[in-house]
């Protein structure tokens, strides 16, 4: 039997979680009541944290992957002494509460990552563990374990059913991430009922084959000592992540315990009263915490504060002995970019030979990778096509494999796009990194479950997406994105950049690095593009600009990426017909929207018709253009020059449309699109 105090604490967590959900009249009491012993074990016996300094660099990380159970996490943060009061618990799921309906990292101190979409949290945890291993390998010195912490996760059946978790667990096993410890809430219940309806595999066997250490606890409701011993054992296994499968009862204590009824509905008032009576608490009282439980957690907080103070002292000594490393550590954790970065970005003139923007991206990476040690990531098995591996790169691998080291920064994600993005989110959450992932633009659609969380979580992740249109040619419509950029542009807090040449690629990277609170997607070509007259890094940062501004043009052609140079050709054909057209390159709609009105009007003056050209869906261009050239169907398989003809994207097609549009607007007023006051 567990010492009495632990039992009281666990039952307090259960009752408090039930109160929180009941007060909101919304939420999930089952998982918190079943997972209370795990949470109590972690927060009182294992985790190293200082609630008064939630950003302490080497704190242990905790992720509640079954984010629907977040009443549990908020209760734990309250007990642990974080800035989550009883009043905050009472405002669970209400507007502007620090206890929102699912955990959001930017809303609540102590929440590391945003969870709720099942499978993401465990995958973020793999990223957190990679970040820890890399930072430790980079900064620790003999006698100076500046970075040394564990990543703990609680996850449920749903997380384990999600494909993204399989992708990342497989990689975590390969990478031998020994400081990753996952506690599986094996309660046999999900929303539809018993897991035997569709989930009968042996999870531990699966994880063992991934290279994990696995343990089983048969009574996670009552065997607290067994639970503590299992976590102890997991910590001793240093070359494998550990999964502890813990049999629990969902809604433990409720009249409906062990059934799906307690998954996602508040307990009735009667039920809560009987739960409290059963636990020996006063059924009349709610939101109550016994003094002995508060005292227990106050002691834990004291120990945490003490450990934090010892770490500060250690870091002082480290700073004296390794001043440059210490300064670099501080720079990275404060998200400050190295001063040399901007100067290192290559610049081009129209005399330079035509190059594919994916190749120009590789040139940038080679210039900046050594200056920017926080840049870490890789490609989903398309390194050769995506050109994302810089010359001095070392793979992030366990030393024993002979393939690299934990100090390496090039991650071999394998063909795991969704997992790649979720891992990047975890690395970003750790702090001190700029993670990146790469694949063909079309396959970001495999990863949007995680990329939209990069945006929601305010994480600076750089998505380097190549082969960005029908311009990839022969691989055909299965590989050619059509709707993809429209989707990404519709996603809040996401910077979409489709550079047209070398200067724009450099500018796109600078914007991606400088935007510390949002992800960027760089759409890059497979085919060669000429360097444009008028392009520059500075212009790129404005989002859109006239390449060669002309006094009162008859027509504006606006384009992105590979279509900009085609528009430049089209202006020559239009000039022969007496139409003076100017070309606006628009590498980023978002950056353009952030400019002032006068600038926007200078790029798109009133009274001048605008045609957009982009080898994607035309969806979304109505905001800027009176007519749009693009795709209304999927692409096709052929050499890319033929595809540009088939889909009406040649300079001739654009010039023809230009003639039609200018004719039309001779007899019609040109609607004002840009800079309307409403
Ligand atoms: C990606 C995703 N799909 C669906 C849901 C909706 N959902 C929330 S909890 C849940 C059931 C999860 O079962 P389990 O992990 O066993 O949780 P338990 O019922 O044991 O608390 C589902 C389908 C979700 N949150 N995320
Ligand atoms: C605690 O959080 C509240 C928001 O709920 C904030 O106003 C307050 O400043 C925070 N206190 C501390 C000490 O951080
Ligand atoms: C994004 O980057 C651009 C260009 O570097 C900069 O002007 C802008 O302020 C940044 N925005 C945010 C939100 O960081
Ligand atoms: C530097 C530091 O605080 N290291 C600690 C990391 O965490 C483990 C256990 O959580 C401690 O044993 C280390 O001392
Ligand atoms: C330059 C380069 O590496 N090109 C490769 C792009 O990717 C395809 C496969 O997807 C390869 O066949 C090319 O050789
Ligand atoms: Mg379950």
Automatic annotation (TrEMBL):
According to its UniProt record, which residues of this chain constitute the active site? 417
Q: Which residues form the Transketolase-like pyrimidine-binding domain?
A: 355-531
Enzyme class, broadest EC rank: transferase
Single GO cellular component annotation? cytosol
Supply the SUPFAM superfamilies for this chain: Thiamin diphosphate-binding fold (THDP-binding), TK C-terminal domain-like
Positions with a binding annotation for Mg(2+): 157, 187, 189
Q: Which family does it belong to?
A: Belongs to the transketolase family.
Q: What is this protein called?
A: Transketolase
Q: Which organism is it from?
A: Basidiobolus meristosporus CBS 931.73
């Amino acid at each position: 039997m567990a010492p009495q105090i632990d039992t009281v604490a666990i039952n307090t967590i259960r009752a408090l979680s039930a109160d929180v959900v009941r007060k909101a009249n919304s939420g999930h009491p089952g998982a918190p009541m079943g997972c209370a012993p795990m949470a109590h074990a972690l927060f009182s016996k294992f985790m190293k944290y200082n609630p008064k300094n939630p950003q302490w660099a080497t704190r242990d990380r905790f992720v509640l992957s079954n984010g629907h159970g977040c009443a549990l996490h908020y209760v734990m943060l309250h007990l642990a002494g974080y800035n989550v009061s009883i009043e905050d618990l009472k405002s669970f799921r209400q507007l502007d509460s620090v206890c929102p309906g699912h955990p959001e990292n930017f809303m609540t101190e102590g929440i590391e990552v945003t969870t709720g979409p099942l499978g993401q949290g465990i995958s973020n945890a793999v990223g957190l563990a990679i970040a820890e291993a890399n930072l430790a390998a980079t900064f620790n010195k003999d006698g100076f374990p500046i970075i040394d912490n564990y990543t703990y996760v609680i996850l449920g059946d749903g997380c384990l059913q999600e494909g993204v978790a399989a992708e990342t667990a497989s990689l975590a096993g390969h990478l031998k991430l020994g400081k990753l410890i996952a506690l599986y809430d094996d309660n046999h219940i999900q929303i539809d009922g018993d897991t035997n309806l569709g989930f009968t595999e042996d999870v531990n066997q699966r994880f063992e084959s991934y290279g994990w250490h696995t343990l089983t606890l048969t009574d996670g409701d009552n065997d607290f000592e067994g639970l503590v011993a299992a976590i102890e054992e997991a910590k001793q296994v240093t070359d494998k992540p550990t999964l502890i499968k813990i049999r629990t009862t969902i809604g433990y204590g409720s009249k409906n315990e062990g059934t799906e009824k307690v998954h996602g509905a508040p307990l009735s008032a009667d039920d809560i009263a009987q739960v409290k009576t059963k636990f020996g608490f006063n059924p009349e009282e709610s939101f109550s915490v016994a003094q002995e439980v508060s005292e227990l957690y106050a002691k834990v907080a004291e120990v945490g504060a003490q450990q934090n103070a010892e770490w500060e002292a250690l870091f002082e000594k480290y700073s004296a002995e390794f001043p440059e490393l210490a300064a670099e550590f501080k720079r990275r954790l404060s998200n400050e970019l190295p001063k040399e970065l901007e100067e290192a970005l290559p610049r081009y003139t129209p005399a330079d030979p035509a190059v594919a923007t994916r190749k120009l991206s590789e040139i940038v990476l080679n210039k900046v990778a050594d200056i920017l040690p926080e840049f870490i990531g890789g490609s989903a098995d398309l390194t050769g096509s995506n050109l994302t591996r810089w010359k001095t790169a070392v793979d992030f691998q366990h030393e024993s494999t002979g393939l690299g080291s934990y100090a390496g920064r090039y991650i071999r994600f394998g063909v795991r796009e969704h997992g790649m993005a979720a891992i990047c989110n975890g690395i970003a959450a750790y702090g001190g990194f700029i993670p990146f992932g790469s694949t063909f633009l079309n396959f970001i659609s495999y990863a949007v479950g995680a990329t939209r969380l990069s945006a929601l979580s305010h994480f600076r992740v750089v998505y380097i997406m190549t082969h960005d249109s029908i311009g990839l040619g022969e691989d055909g419509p299965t590989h050619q994105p059509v709707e993809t950029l429209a989707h990404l542009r519709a996603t809040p807090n996401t910077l979409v950049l489709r550079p047209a040449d070398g200067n724009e690629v450099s500018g796109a990277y600078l914007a991606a690095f400088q935007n510390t609170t949002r992800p960027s997607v760089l759409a890059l070509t497979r085919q060669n593009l000429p360097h444009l007259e008028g392009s520059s890094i500075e212009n790129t940062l404005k989002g859109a600009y006239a390449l060669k501004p002309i006094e009162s043009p008859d027509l504006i052609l606006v384009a992105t990426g590979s279509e900009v140079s085609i528009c430049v050709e089209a202006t020559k054909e239009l000039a022969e017909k007496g139409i003076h057209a100017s070309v606006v390159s628009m590498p980023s709609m978002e950056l353009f929207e952030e400019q002032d009105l006068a600038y926007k009007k200078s790029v798109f003056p009133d009274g001048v018709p605008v045609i957009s050209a982009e080898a994607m869906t035309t969806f979304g261009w109505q905001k800027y253009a009176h007519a749009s050239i693009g795709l209304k169907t999927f692409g096709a398989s052929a050499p890319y020059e033929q595809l540009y003809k088939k889909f009406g994207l040649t300079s001739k097609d654009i010039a023809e449309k230009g003639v039609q549009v200018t004719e039309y607007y001779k007899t019609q007023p040109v609607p004002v699109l840009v800079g309307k006051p409403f």
